[in-house]
Specification:
The complex is a heterodimer of chains A (about 375) and B (about 300). Chain A is about 70% helix and about 5% strand. Chain A is mainly alpha-helical and about 375 residues long. Chain B is built from 13 helices and 2 strands; from the N terminus they run ααααβαβαααααααα. The chains are: A mainly alpha (about 375), B mainly alpha (about 300).
Chain lengths: ~375, ~300
Amino acid sequence: MRLLSRIHVERRTTPPAWVVVSVSVGAIIAALLVAGIFFRAYGISPLRAYGDILRGAFGSRLGITETIRRAIPLLLIGVGLTVAFRALFWNIGAEGQLLVGAVAASGIALFSGLPGALLLPAMFIGGFLAGAAWGIIPAALKSKLGINDVITTLMMNYIAIYIVEWLIHGPWKGPTMRGFAYTDPFPAAAVLSTVGDTRIHWPTLVIGIAAAIIAYVLVKRTRAGFEIRVVGENPHAAKYSGISHVKVTLLAMAFSGGMAGMAGVGEVAGIHHMLLGPANVTGGYGYTAIIVAWLARRNPLAVIVTAFLFAVLLRGGDVIKVSLGLPFQLVNVFNGLILFFLIGSDILMRYRISFDRKERRAA
Amino acid sequence: MNWESWVIATFSRTLAYGTPLLLATLGEIYAERSGVLNLGVEGMMVIGAFAGFAVAHSTGNPWLGVLIASVVGGIFSLIHAFASITLRANQVVSGLALTMLGLGLSGVLGRRFEGWPLLHPLEEVTVPGLSRIPVLGPILFDGQNVLVYIAIALAIVLWYVLYRTRIGVSIRAVGEDPATADSLGVNVARIRYLCVFVGGVLAGMAGGYLSIAYRPSWTDGMTAGMGWIVIALTIFAFWNPLLGLVGAYFFAALFHLSFRLQAWVAPEILKAMPYALAILVLIAVSRGTLQKRMGAPSALTLPYRRGEE
């Protein structure tokens, strides 16, 4: 009893940075340990598995460049999601916003007839606008009619999936693709340039890093960012100080959807050079980026780090498939475990546990 | 093909495909009615499908497979229950994590079962006498699976429990206004755990039906997004088990017709309908009294802790 009386649990609103970082790192380590038990049960040495993942991601030039190119869409989407999450908007729809961005870019690349130099800029703008539109619809439904954002963004993912399926099986099916469900390949002027012979489509990477910095400045230093923060942190205060909830939600989601749309542009113009099956275009980035933004604690700059971290895991999935004969689905085990430990560890940040060294005199 | 056999084949397949949708939707209705949104349906279904197939394949006993599928689905759902009820973590994120974990675990563990046929799947039954009724007989009573009837019976029982029994009142109270329910002596956490568990059991059973009866085999990710249709269906059914019954078959018919009508309608349009309809339903009931009577449970996604609003 004496011992227990010395432990204090208090609520806290803003945990210090070192707590946030160490709790997050702790959660990831815990998740990797549990995944290690899973490896062991499967008859694979966890050390070997993690060694393979690290070697695969950093051990060669190919590994490093493939990790970076996997980080690009996670970075773009993740930055957008931090802004949406800050406005307390649950955007689970990045997957669909990415797809409509890819559709817009493909349409412009294949059918616009624009001169070569204008093609790529038009594709990025078109992709941003399409993703933004796909994001604004659920934002309007939430702020005007109070309709649950989780459900609408989720449902719109599937509508986008079937739009892509319909296009590649129907009107946009490439006549030169011998019956496969792809569009025709993009003209050369619609293909993003890469770093050397790698698959790093650097213009998209530059956009991602610039967006992270701009979003950070916007959120921390400008009136719009302040309004987003107030709406997210204290909706009542926002109401009384005359901040328009509708405007803030629409703006945040236009940005979030637009960023995901540009990630879609990067995937089709930088990697595939055509529009193909929705699962191949998104690669699950829209969902993985939710963990990326969550782990970054809604800080756009931190997304640069967390996007890279999850790119390592995705690359690890590619490598382990070959070296250990494990299916790529393994990545989902990591993702799920990390996410559980992250939200579980939030409780450590919401509360402050202190321990008195000396017994209190008064007690 | 003549008209009659076309109708019979279409509706008979609709019934078969609607069954896993119905089972999982009934479970999600219970979870959401108690105030817990579980986006892990896809994960619980797929882990159930895997576990069920593994057991049925190894023991040769399909019913044991269905049982294990349900138990595994139930146990799996407790992760979400613990995170969202005990730790009061974010339900959206926890549910997504459950789906990822389910897809990942079943994909890795199921590797060695891929491509094996199931020698003893759940048997199909033909009800003597009733199957002779013209049109309806062959649809309802010829070569359907027992689980088809179990699912229909469950829809009726679960509707009765929700609207006509004490525990049903408690479930709805906990989902609408947990603080008041708590002050009246209802154990909020216990009810929510129970409902999430029921959701897991039924989603697991739905998965088991897929891998042991509907398509007796295991393939990675074989639920193919069905869990998300279930999320849409729960809304479409206004969180009511009997409407869930209607909705499950309606969505199943859309899915099945997307193949049969391919020559006339792009299949993607029919396949996208469930998701579009869910949004339209939410728009339709977003105002005033309709929202109160037919909308989502008021406390959905809100963790509860005594003394906190």
